[in-house]
Amino acid sequence: MTHDTNHRPAASRQDGPGTLITVAPTGAESEKAAVPVLPVTLEELVTTARECQAAGAAVIHVHIRDGQARPTLDGARLADTVQALRESTDLIVQLSTGGAVTDSFERRLAVLDAGPDACSLTCGTVNFGDEVFANPWPFIRELYARTQELSVVPEFELFDLGHIATLHRLLADLGPPAGGHVHCDLVMGVPGGMPGDLATVAAAAAALPEGATWSATGIGRTSLPVMLAALAGGGHLRVGLEDTVSFARGRPAASNAELVQRAAALAGLAQRPALPPDRARVLLGIPDPR
Ligand code: KMH
Ligand code: ZN
Predict the structure, then answer these.
(1) Residue 106's CB: how many other CB atoms inside 10 A?
(2) Which residues of 4-14 are buried (b: 16+ CB within 10 A; e: fewer)?
(3) What confidence tens digit (pLDDT) does each residue in 44-82 have?
(4) Is the Cβ atom of 28 under 6 angstroms away from ligand 1?
(5) Taking the model in full, what pTM does it have?
(6) Cβ pair 45, 91 in contact under 8 A
(7) Cβ(36)–Cβ(251) under 8 Å?
(8) What is the CA(134)–ligand 2 centre distance, in A?
C-alpha cells in the first residue's frame, strides 16, 4: 500500500543521488515532562511518523514507552507499534535494540521477535554520560546472527572509531547482513563517544567497509555540524528528538517534523534530495512487507 499521493515508477539503485533521512523521534532518555512534544503514546508516534514522512523521512528509528511514558521493550507493544506504523505510513520501521541503558541483553535480543523491517545494532560498549551503554562482543555477535536468521536488516550504530573495527570483525566472522548491503549510522557527540566534528566524520567514513553507505547524527549541539559534514561527505542523515531536543541555541524543537524539514531542506540545497521510502528500500536492501 502506498500512503502518499506521488505514484513513482519502481525504484532502482541506479537512480540519481539522494539523501536517506531517518527520524529518531523518541529515544529512551528524555522525559515527557521535560519535552512535551516527545511522542510517547502509539497515537502520538503514528501522527509523528506521518508528519515526518511528509517532511522527507524514509526510515523511523523506534523506541517505545509504557503507559507512564517510561522506556519499555515490551514485546506486545513493540509488535503493535510495528503494525500501526506499517498501516499508516510507508516508512521503513527500524526498532531499536539498544533500548535504555538499563535493559537486559535478553530483552534487547527479543526485540527482533516483533518483526520489524530493520533494527539498530550497536558495535561496541560506550560511556554514555554518567552511564554505560553495554555491547560486549558475544552479545553483538548473537544479535547479528539473529538478524540474519530472521531477515531483519541491521543498521550498524557506531559511537566510536573502535566500533568500526568490531564491525569489520563481525562481517568477517558471520558474513553479510540480511539484504546483503551494509549501512551504518555514525552517532557522534555522545559524552563518552567520538566527537561530532568534520575531522571525525571524515575519519570514520574512511574506515567503513568498502561499499557501505552511512548516515550520521550529531547529539545535541553537534547536530548541525555533523549534518553539514555528512552531506558534504556523501553521507545520509538521522535527526529527531532522540538526538537533540533543540532547534537552535535556546529554542526547543517544535516537533520531529520540524527537524526533518530542516534536514530535507539542507539535502535539497546539496542537490541530494530526500529519498522516498521506496528508493530507500532499494538502497538498503529491504523488501516492502505490505
Ligand atoms: N538509548 C541508548 C542507550 C539504539 O537505539 O540502538 C541506546 C540507543 C541506541 O539509543
Ligand atoms: Zn536509539
Answers:
(1) 9
(2) eeeeeeebeee
(3) 999 999 999 999 999 999 999 999 999 999 999 999 999
(4) yes
(5) 0.95
(6) no
(7) no
(8) 14
